[in-house]
């Protein structure tokens, strides 16, 4: 079990507090509390002590993990070392690991503080630090409950929820190993598998979710939380928001836009059969026959989100994909020939980009042919900063999402204004 503690909770209940350091820790906690409450250090005593010279220095948020021996006084030594450098401990979680414990802190510290050196002198090792932001101020139980609610609402949220739960990591989905034969030895058990910086989880429909992060081993506590999210997803079964939006085209005709999944495979395949060879070539950059092979993957919520546009009779005329590609995010479009140049692709792309921004993506990229003027025009129509890379006729256009306004709602489809168009970039 992990623990969440505030700096003001410095009583002897914590099993690693040592009596010899308790008084110093409480005094340091009082100084931190006084500074937050009154905007400065507490008044000096008769000794004439003055506030440290860095009292007005810029303070920034940090996430930090460090490993210490699981013995009395180890945590108190860390906290005292941080307090001596005017570091404010906003939250703390402990991850027991047998003889050691991983302590995870959210800190507010003067900008020039060497956190690694501070905790090293207090017995910390294998220390990892990363700049934090206001989102990290939410305590762990609240954050986990929020991610569970997101996962319950939409099966496509599972990879995103795992990434937000576990920090900066890469998540991939793969078919499960055969139940018998030579590959059986590498099969992932039902309870999952944890090894250092890699964890594997059995997800619904039989696939295996592999989560990797190169900089920090996973703890058993993190593994248990991730497994609980995947178990929740499996129990709830396939689900997806079913709201839709209506687009009015320049000539007055209307098409509706909604989320799509593998249940729309037949209609999507029929649309591909109506598309010309050139349209399919520009979309898939290869033999036309590959399109059918890709569709089931593209429509799976495990790999991203898909929007489709359809007429009043249910005929699918366009598809837009937002694909989780490891640490990056790809967007892709295909519009049936008879419905091209009516603004459908641009409208789908605007919504996909807003969904990516809401999911926390900093960039999206599109891979196309240099001759695909329609896709290039749609990307330019976003009004966002773009980067172009071209090699041997293949064009990669990357959009910076920092200029996208935060959406007012999380789910697409209920109201047209939930995902407003990105603001034009300013010079």
What features would you describe in this structure?
This protein has three domains: 106 residues, 2-Layer Sandwich (Alpha-Beta Plaits); 87 residues, no CATH class; 175 residues, 3-Layer(aba) Sandwich (Aminopeptidase), CATH 3.40.630. Helices cover 30% and strands 27% of the residues. The strands form four sheets. Strands 9-10-11-12-13 form a five-stranded antiparallel sheet, sandwiched between helices. A four-stranded antiparallel sheet has the order 2-3-1-4, with helices on one face. It has a four-stranded antiparallel sheet with strand order 5-8-7-6, with helices on one face. Helix 4 packs parallel to helix 6 and helix 7 runs antiparallel to helix 9. The chain is elongated. The protein starts with 18 loop residues before the first helix and ends in a 27-residue tail after the last strand. The relative contact order is 0.08.
């Amino acid at each position: 079990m992990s623990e969440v503690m505030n700096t003001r909770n410095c009583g002897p209940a914590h099993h690693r507090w040592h009596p010899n350091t308790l008084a110093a820790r409480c005094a340091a906690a009082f100084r931190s509390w006084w500074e937050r409450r009154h905007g400065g250090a507490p008044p000096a005593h008769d000794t004439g002590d003055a506030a440290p010279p860095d009292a007005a220095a810029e303070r920034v948020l940090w996430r930090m993990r460090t490993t210490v021996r699981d013995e009395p006084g180890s945590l108190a030594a860390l906290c005292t070392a941080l307090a001596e450098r005017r570091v404010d401990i906003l939250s703390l979680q402990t991850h027991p690991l047998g003889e050691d414990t991983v302590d995870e802190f959210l800190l507010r510290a003067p900008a020039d503080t060497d956190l690694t050196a501070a905790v090293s002198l207090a017995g910390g090792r294998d220390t990892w630090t990363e700049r934090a932001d206001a989102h990290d101020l939410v305590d762990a139980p609240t954050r986990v409950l929020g991610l569970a609610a997101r996962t319950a609402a939409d099966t496509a949220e599972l990879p995103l929820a795992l990434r937000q739960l576990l920090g900066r990591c890469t998540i991939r989905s793969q078919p499960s190993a055969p139940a018998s034969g030579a590959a059986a030895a590498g099969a992932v058990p039902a309870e999952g598998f944890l090894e250092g910086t890699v964890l594997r989880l059995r997800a619904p429909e039989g696939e295996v979710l592999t989560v990797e992060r190169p900089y920090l081993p996973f703890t058993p506590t993190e593994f248990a939380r991730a497994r609980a999210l995947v178990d929740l997803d499996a129990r709830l079964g396939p689900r997806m928001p079913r709201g839709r939006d209506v687009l009015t085209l320049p000539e007055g005709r209307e098409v509706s836009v909604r989320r799509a999944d593998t249940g729309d495979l037949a209609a999507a395949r029929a649309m591909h059969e109506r598309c010309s060879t050139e349209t399919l070539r520009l979309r898939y950059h290869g033999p036309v026959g590959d399109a059918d092979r890709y569709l089931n993957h593209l429509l799976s919520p495990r790999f991203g989100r898909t929007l489709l546009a359809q007429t009043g009779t249910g005929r699918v005329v366009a598809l837009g994909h937002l694909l989780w590609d490891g640490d990056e995010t790809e967007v892709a479009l295909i519009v049936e020939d008879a419905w091209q140049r009516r603004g459908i692709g641009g409208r789908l792309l605007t919504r996909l980009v807003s969904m990516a921004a809401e999911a926390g993506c900093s960039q999206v990229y599109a891979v196309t042919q240099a001759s695909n003027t329609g896709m290039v025009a749609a990307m330019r129509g976003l009004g966002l900063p773009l980067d172009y890379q071209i090699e041997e006729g293949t064009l990669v256009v990357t959009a910076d999402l920092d200029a996208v306004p935060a959406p007012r709602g999380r789910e697409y489809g209920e109201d047209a204004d939930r995902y407003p168009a990105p603001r034009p970039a300013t010079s």
